[in-house]
């Protein structure tokens, strides 16, 4: 968004420059003098509010009494009625959504506002007007999202009458965008706004601004009557800001820049402050900044102070000094209290990939305290000036520019003389360190520290500069080298010795012939050693050739050529699926080290691997496989190669060079839904909230609906269960394990197969007939819903000690007991009675014995999505319930344990879990009415 804003600003600059001149020159003149208004100071502003919720601001902006802000244009309103207080400009409708930084060259306010216009039959033209809440403010950039149906959006230029007829002069109106009506299925504006591509929503990012007044006109197409068959949401026009910026400035003077600089009657009342013309305004518009080397508030007396933000003492006892393989020395740090100032606190976002962030757009590669440099990589789409990297209440101490560059830095914006006078804040604390000045192209920036010649280390910590032993360097002396503190000196070789360039030391002259003999002996020994080495190399090469031949044989046996043809014939699959070599996977898993095992079961293991591009994957390795199962393996790879969905586990590729093929998946760190529901609940770990259960169920249903109806070919999963629904780092559902899945031609509704699946989830109709269809997955998904509802395993032990089928138990209990007496206690506490009845009804329909009576996965997904939408709307309408709606991220942060295994199918279960399931199969057959 910032890149887009920059491009729009540059492209429109030639258009908006005359308008900017008009904005400032047309502003009414107000003469402010020190004689008729109190000069603001820290004393006069005592008690003034400087924070609203998470946002901070300072004079000339303020809240409440008139003494707390400079003039009405800068009056703010803090709305405390919401859970998180919100900050507004004086109109009470334009919301400020970021901190207001006073001492900065950038005078932008990030704002948001919205309007809603009700449409009426017979009325085809509608108008909207937004006015800047003050003459010192004007709109610099805005991108609006207009959600409506069947109309054109125009901007009216200055002077256009909003009450004029529809056929106004075309030169006074600019077409911004056109929006058409959405599909009948789209019943919410939020769905249309996801893309905002002109269907139900359009974006107007090319407004002609700056302006203090923004006027829009909406003209319906053809003047047709409103379509009452559509949702009432499309009977109005909803205008919201996607991104908007207001620029503020001081307008106290009647003349131009020359008078502005020379006058003493301006807003810049602090010593060491000065007025500057607003970056995007001219004439009487100006702002105040502190002089170079000073920081603070230039609008109050003694507000600009010298930099005193450096603290040479590390406040935290133990600090991490590494991010992966990148060293982070003091004065930099990774944690609060580990850096010398806020500007030097970095963020290690990933230890495995050594991802060290300076800010959102700059990645740190290396830090050198000796050279005073930080090697950075600019990850944004356009290069930024490092001096523009601003931290609130911190001076600008980074100097550099470029996509990849070494950036200079200073520790404080002081001269060396000023820094040494403040002994408690002086950065060069190590003995044998010195102070150096740091300059940029614009002048003096500050100072840094460096070890004196003859020493190296870190000058910012005590005893950090250590003596360099120069005598360890070769050929530094043609004799005897003597090291001293900070330097060294050379002396001649003693008598009867001479300097030998071969041994780089003084040797006795009589030993020269002896050394020659030793050299000959060593040469002979080296020849024998070389011959032995060549022999060993040849033997190893011969063994490698044998291994390569064995891998080629495995590749052909595992139908590698067939899989290559399948992948190459599908353009989508070839871009995503890779056939890995065994060498690549051995390197990724440290030769399949036991410490890399994520999970093990009766059929094999799952390893965690790190590829050469630092991508983390999970590698599925079976213990054995029959010739007939090779086709099942190829089937799983072919299916996953053709589907692409955010709720389906991503297949990176496979390896066919082993006797048992290997599958390489995207790493899903938080295990399976089965582990969260059943393992963690008994061990005291966190539970999924009802909100999370609805979301996970909706995401899994969306994935199955995609497989059934939206993929390139229909796919019947055939093994839907909670252990095949994985949860990623954000606890987003990922459907996995397609080894039992079947591809179905478009013109077929079912296929006849050997019965496969997991008891407890297996469709009874499929078990009896052998006919697999999409309703088989619906039944299995219904069992997952019962698991979420009752928090019991599909085959569970009753209070009497007998085994019972969960689906049969649910269907029998809802006939004789109220549903609230059956579901888990947590569900009763968190879900409404309507939600419980709705999900119970949906679950009962999914578990019907006749497949034709069950709903489709599309209907299941839409029902769950509707429940989530109703719940979300209900929660937004009742602020008092906000405390109960804690996001899943907070639940995870408060959890006492985390899942440490990944389940990519049946192989990821433990041996004990597999044995328990096998023992319950016979009992289950009787429970669901199937033949034993």
Task: Provide an overview of this structure.
The protein has 932 residues and is α+β, with helices and mostly antiparallel strands. The protein has 5 domains: 131 residues, no CATH class; 138 residues, Sandwich (Jelly Rolls), CATH 2.60.120; 145 residues, no CATH class; 107 residues, 2-Layer Sandwich (Phosphorylase Kinase, domain 1), CATH 3.30.200; 229 residues, Transferase(Phosphotransferase), domain 1. The chain is built from 19 helices and 49 strands. Strands 3, 4, 5, 6, 7, 8, 10, 13 and 15 form a 9-stranded mixed β-sheet that branches. A 6-stranded antiparallel β-sheet has the order 22-23-24-25-27-26, with no helix packed on it. The chain has a 6-stranded mixed β-sheet with strand order 36-40-41-39-38-37, with helices on both faces. The radius of gyration is 36 Å and the shape is flat. The N terminus and C terminus are likely disordered. It is found in: Membrane. Its main location: membrane. It comes from Triticum aestivum (Wheat). GO terms for molecular function: ATP binding; calcium ion binding; polysaccharide binding; protein serine/threonine kinase activity. Keywords: ATP-binding, Disulfide bond, Glycoprotein, Kinase, Membrane, Nucleotide-binding, Serine/threonine-protein kinase, Signal, Transferase, Transmembrane, Transmembrane helix.
Mean pLDDT over the residues: 79
Backbone shape: flat
Number of E strands: 49
Q: How can the largest sheet be summarized?
A: 9 strands, mixed
Main structural class: alpha+beta
CATH topology of the largest domain: Transferase(Phosphotransferase), domain 1
**Fraction of residues in β-strands:** 15-25%
The CATH class label of the largest domain is Mainly Alpha
The H-level CATH homologous superfamily of the largest domain, spelled out, is Transferase(Phosphotransferase) domain 1
Structural domain count = 5
Number of helices: 19
CATH architecture of the largest domain: Orthogonal Bundle
């Amino acid at each position: 968004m910032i890149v887009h804003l920059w491009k729009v600003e540059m492209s429109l600059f030639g258009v908006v420059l005359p308008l900017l001149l008009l904005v400032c020159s047309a502003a009414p003149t107000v003469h402010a003098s020190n004689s008729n208004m109190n000069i603001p100071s820290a004393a006069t502003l005592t008690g003034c509010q400087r924070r609203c919720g998470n946002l901070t601001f300072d004079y000339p902006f303020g809240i409440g009494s008139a003494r707390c802000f400079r003039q009405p244009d800068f009056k703010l309103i803090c709305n405390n009625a919401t859970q998180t207080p919100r900050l507004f400009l004086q109109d009470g409708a334009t919301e400020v959504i970021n901190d207001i930084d006073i001492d900065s060259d950038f005078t932008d306010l990030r704002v948001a506002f919205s309007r809603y216009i009700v449409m009426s039959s017979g009325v085809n033209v509608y108008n909207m007007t937004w006015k800047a809440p003050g003459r010192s403010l004007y709109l610099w950039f805005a991108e609006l999202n207009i959600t409506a149906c069947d109309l054109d959006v125009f901007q009216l230029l200055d002077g256009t009458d909003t009450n004029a007829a529809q056929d106004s002069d075309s030169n006074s109106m600019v077409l911004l965008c056109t929006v058409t009506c959405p599909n009948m299925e789209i019943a919410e504006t939020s769905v249309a706004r996801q893309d905002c591509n002109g269907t139900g929503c359009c974006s107007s990012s090319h407004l002609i601004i700056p302006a203090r007044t923004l006027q829009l006109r909406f003209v319906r197409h053809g003047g047709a009557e409103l379509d009452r068959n559509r949702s009432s949401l499309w009977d109005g026009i909803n205008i919201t800001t996607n991104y908007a910026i207001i620029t503020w400035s001081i307008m106290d003077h009647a003349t131009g820049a020359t008078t502005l600089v020379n006058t003493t009657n301006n807003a810049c009342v602090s010593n060491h402050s000065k007025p500057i013309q607003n970056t995007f305004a001219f004439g009487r518009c100006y702002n105040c900044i502190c002089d170079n080397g000073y920081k603070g508030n230039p609008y109050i007396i003694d507000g600009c102070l010298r930099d005193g933000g450096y603290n040479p003492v590390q406040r935290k006892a133990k600090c991490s000094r590494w991010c992966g393989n990148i060293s982070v020395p003091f004065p930099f740090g990774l944690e609060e209290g580990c850096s010398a100032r806020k500007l030097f606190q970095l963020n290690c976002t990933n230890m495995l990939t050594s991802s060290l962030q300076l800010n959102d757009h700059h990645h740190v590669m290396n830090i050198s305290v000796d050279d005073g440099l930080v090697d950075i990589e600019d990850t944004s789409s356009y290069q930024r000036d490092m001096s523009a990297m601003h931290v609130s209440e911190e001076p600008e101490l980074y100097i550099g520019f470029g996509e990849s560059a070494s950036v200079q830095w200073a520790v404080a914006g002081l001269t060396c003389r000023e820094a040494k006078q403040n002994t408690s804040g002086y950065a060069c604390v190590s003995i044998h360190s010195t102070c150096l000045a740091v300059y940029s192209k614009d002048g003096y920036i500050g100072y840094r520290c460096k070890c004196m010649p003859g020493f190296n280390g870190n000058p910012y910590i005590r005893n950090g500069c250590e003596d360099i032993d120069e005598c360890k360097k070769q050929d530094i002396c043609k004799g005897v080298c003597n090291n001293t503190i900070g330097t060294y000196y050379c002396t001649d070789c003693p008598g009867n010795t001479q300097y030998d360039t071969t041994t780089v030391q003084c040797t006795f002259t009589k030993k020269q012939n002896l050394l020659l003999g030793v050299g000959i002996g060593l040469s002979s020994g080296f020849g024998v050693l070389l011959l032995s080495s060549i022999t060993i190399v040849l033997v190893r090469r011969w063994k490698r050739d044998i291994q390569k031949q064995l891998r080629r044989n495995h590749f052909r046996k595992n139908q590698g050529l067939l899989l290559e043809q399948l992948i190459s014939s599908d353009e989508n699959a070839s871009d995503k699926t890779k056939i890995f070599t065994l060498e690549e996977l051995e390197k990724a898993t440290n030769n399949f080290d036991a410490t890399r095992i994520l999970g093990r079961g009766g059929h094999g293991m799952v390893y965690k691997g790190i590829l050469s591009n630092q991508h983390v994957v999970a590698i599925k390795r079976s213990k054995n496989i029959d010739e007939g199962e090779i086709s099942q393996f190829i089937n799983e790879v072919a299916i996953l190669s053709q589907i692409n969905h955010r709720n389906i586990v991503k297949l990176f590729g496979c390896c066919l060079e082993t006797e048992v093929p290997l599958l390489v998946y995207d790493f899903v760190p938080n295990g399976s839904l089965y582990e969260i529901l059943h393992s963690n609940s008994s061990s005291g770990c966190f539970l999924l909230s009802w909100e999370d259960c609805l979301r996970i169920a909706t995401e899994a249903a969306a994935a199955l609906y995609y497989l059934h109806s939206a993929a390139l070919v229909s796919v019947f999963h055939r093994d839907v269960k909670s252990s095949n629904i994985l949860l990623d780092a954000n606890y987003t559902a990922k459907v996995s394990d397609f080894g039992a899945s079947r591809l179905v031609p478009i013109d077929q509704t079912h296929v006849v197969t050997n019965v496969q699946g997991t008891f407890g989830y297996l469709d009874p109709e499929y078990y009896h007939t052998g006919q697999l269809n999409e309703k088989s997955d619906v039944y299995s998904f219904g069992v997952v819903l019962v698991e979420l509802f009752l928090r019991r395993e599909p085959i569970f032990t009753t209070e009497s000690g007998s085994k019972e089928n969960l689906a049969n138990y649910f269907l029998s209990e809802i006939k004789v007991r109220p549903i609230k007496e059956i579901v888990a206690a947590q569900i009763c506490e968190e879900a409404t009675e309507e939600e419980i009845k709705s999900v119970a009804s949906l679950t009962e329909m999914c578990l019907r014995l006749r497949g034709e009576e069950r709903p489709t996965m599309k209907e299941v997904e839409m029902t769950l999505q509707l429940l989530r939408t109703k719940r979300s709307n209900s929660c937004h309408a009742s602020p008092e319930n906000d405390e109960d709606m804690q996001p899943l991220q907070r639940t995870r942060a408060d959890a006492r344990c985390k899942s440490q295994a990944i389940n990519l199918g049946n192989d990821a279960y433990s041996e004990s879990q597999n044995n328990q399931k096998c023992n319950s199969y016979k009992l289950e057959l009787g429970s669901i009415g199937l033949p034993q």
